[in-house]
Amino acid sequence: MNSTNPSTVPNSDAPAAETATPEAHGQLMPHAPAKGDLYDDSVLNFEQLGLRSSVLKGVKEAGFERPTKIQAMLIPPIMAGKDMLGQAKTGSGKTAAFALPLLHALDKDAQFQALVLVPTRELCVQVAREVNELGKHTPIKAAAVYGGERINQQVETIKRGAHIVVSTPGRLMDMMERGYVHLRAIKHVVLDEVDRMLDIGFREDIRRILKQCPSERQTVFVSATLPEEVERLARGYSKNPERVIAIAKGAMTTAAVRQFYLAVQPWDRRRLLLHLLTHEEPALTVVFCRTKRTVDELAEFLVRHKIDAHPMHGDMYQSKRNKVIEKLHKGDLSVLVASDLAARGLDVDGITHVINYDIPEDAEVYVHRIGRTARIGREGVAWTFVMPDQGELLTNVENLINAEVPKLDYPDFKPSPPPPGRVALQPGGPVSEAKANQFNRYAFSATPPLPVVAKETAKAAADPRFPGGVVPSKLPPKRMFGKVKTAHGMKQAIDATLKTDPPPPPKPDAP
Ligand code: AMP
Hints:
By secondary structure, this protein is α/β, with parallel strands linked by helices. It is built from 19 helices and 13 strands. The termini are far apart. Adenosine monophosphate binds near residues 64, 90, 94, 130 and 347.
């Protein structure tokens, strides 16, 4: 972005002077993640990045106190007009890293100057929402354009005056082919989650879109991983992109996520899930399943057991998915049962727990999933169900994140015997349980309950209140106010746990 001099830009208000001191930030950030993880020690506040004051006002209202690493790395070169390739995962603050320079640089009098391509509809809605939220004190507006909604309405929204269009590649191609939009005035292109876009199969659409943009443009690529194909795309469609990496190798997961696995037999998974949701304190939980059918069946099962659960998967109408997302944003929902595609890019504050009902086949999907929780500056918990024949999948995850995921046992959860006609699975095939346990730590123990100490040690290891794993022996049982979590009970839990404002009173019914 070449227009860093505010006096040359119609959307002009002077960059604010530096105000905050490092000390002040130290006090303001009691939960700041460990040094070298999320933040860059040399960039302590947004003022020093030279963003205009209207942008800084939005940043402040969003509650951002200091730039994350990817923001410190990307904002200055993007503001200077450079092409960039940045490696950053969801949850690192990557959206604001490209949104703030756009809000700073765009001309309020020119329409559709910036294009942001994203892989999914949900991410599309979220990115546009975040841009508009951060830019609410600027004249710059973003519109979300994605499949599943009426194309004419979206064209109207662009024409009414969107400076930034956030779009999935498929819908944008559709609009271009029908002659509704053209890309001749585009000055900035951002490709967000490039690796995902390529995985989903948007290769050709992306190439065709980039070819239609003027060659005199700025191009920014953001990707969680940097496989050769992403690098090639960036080299082919930008000018000497500077490459920045905001993820330490081997530290792909958010450090603030406390991760555990639970060994379970296939027939016990639903019961174990119900047990966790009713005996622990998950305020806002996302349960990930592999198939749409499991999503539907599991959500129905939970609702039958008085859990306030909502399904979300790709076969649901977009309007229904949007309703679920709205509920999530308002804090009106307790448990979301979701498939990967539906939940990708989901950016909702206050998700406390992620439960992998189905451990993903692809370890990177695990990283994406658990990135839903522990958003910047918060803690989160991820529980992964591992069936006896799935040990290898967990090992793959551990290899990718370069850390061991500890086991969590529930002495008060009694595994049931195999139903008629089924046998208890053992890891690695038909070997004796003792032998299996000896070699495979993912072994399912068919002889419950495990000693209480195992549970408490696991909890203690995870609980900052008990450093060194020493737990008071009279710890009260951890229950949801002593009752099964219903919609109402969980609502209270959300309010109490997250100290969020209670939702507004229900609107009176329309006449
Ligand atoms: P993203 O990586 O863009 O998905 O952002 C993850 C979450 O972090 C979003 O909820 C952002 O609003 C939030 N966020 C972004 N930047 C910051 C920051 N500097 N400080 C605190 N929260 C942030």
